[in-house]
Amino acid sequence: MEKRQNIAIIGGGVSSVSILNHMVHNPEFGEELRIDIYDTERMMGRGPAYQADSRHLLINVPTEEMSLGNGHPSYREWLESNSHEPVTYTSRHLFGEYMRELMTSVAKAHDNIHLLHTLADDIQYDSENGRFTLHSGDEVKIYDHLFLTIGQLNYLDPYQLKASEGYIYDPYPLDEGLSAVDDDRIGIVGSGLSAIDCIRYLLIERGVPEVHAFSRSGDMPSVRGTPTDVELSHFTYEKLESLKVNDEISLESIKELFRKELAHQGVDEALLDRRTGNTLADLRFDVSHLDEIGRLQYVIISVNPIFSDVYQYLSRSDKVEFLDKYHPLIEENHSPMPLEVAEDLIKWAEAGQLYIVDGTRSIEKEDEFIVSTDEEEQYFIRTLINATGPEKDVRQDDTGIIGALLNHQIIAPSEFGGILVDQKRHVISPKTGTIENMFVLGSLTTGADYLSNSVQLLNRNAQKIVDQFYNQLK
């Protein structure tokens, strides 16, 4: 590799940090690679999930499992060396500091790496010479390779309330978005991790008297059980590879292997479908069965990297069936909340500070927000906070760089979320076909990678992409 290669990385969060980290630690890395990374100063090295915010917003993965490797200090070592107590669940802000320091140190060590505190406004692709033209403000640059690592899309707005007075469409960072919320009649739309963030911030940091959390199901993530080591016996790459026929693996065969694994690990399969519809009862059950729940969760966490890789081998009909029937059961156990968070939620609900309302049918704005439920109940809310999470359909996020890439037909939406990519995470363009010098990592590959947005999986997949990148340069 002698010719200079200009590389753009779009986004500065976990995916970007991981790509950069693996790239500079590859033996093929050299001065002929010029790397520009685009993101705002606030997000560079952090991304939205780990931006500066309230210390009460906790990571839901134990500290021991949150490291980026390649000779850098582990997250625990970094905490200790910076006089932070290495508690089991730290604030997300602290992990953002860890990532930011890693990215900054890598950039300072190499003159050919540049952290550009600006956004990419437009990108065009010339299929004749295989190069990208990137516009950022008044700057125009040409790149030979592009890594799209923008992270999550814009927030959902399921009740079309974005322009309504008193509606907080995107509350993050909570220190800014919720700092001036009036204490009277606060409602939150959603019951997932974002909703829990908002609940904790309002009740702990703001000390508001009460909060209502509205959602269709009322289901919250499960409670993280007792950590346990899992050595897989049945759900392995080798056994799944042996089931591949004509580049497909049937859902039935995957289910059979998973059931065998659960039985081998001593996990009661009925725990997958343990929800009763009563959110508080479900939380209490998990809190009082931490060992059993932990075994189930850590089997799921252990098989997830394998299933994420074989997910692309499901037929369309099998993928539809899986997402409809089985994904909700897996998802609620895949990213469980810390025990201390669950105990707080139960305490607040019992004290009349937190009301979890399911069966939300509609939300309308008149003088106030009127929330109607399937039970014909109505709630009158003065301030409504959107905590429904980000979009998965890129067509609903037609602003910024995603809108530009869609407009130029460089990317296309996947039926199952994110954008179309091949098995090596190259972009598949509806106009020019596979673009082998454009890689994607993060939420934009949700249709190809199953539940792959954890730090561990993003870091692992970044390694694969970087290896593929260097192989293509040879």
UniProtKB/TrEMBL annotation:
Which intervals hold domain FAD-dependent urate hydroxylase HpyO/Asp monooxygenase CreE-like FAD/NAD(P)-binding?
Answer: 8-152
Q: Which Pfam families match?
A: NAD_binding_9
This protein is called: FAD-dependent urate hydroxylase HpyO/Asp monooxygenase CreE-like FAD/NAD(P)-binding domain-containing protein
Species whose genome carries this gene:
Salinicoccus roseus
Source species taxonomy = Bacteria, Bacillati, Bacillota, Bacilli, Bacillales
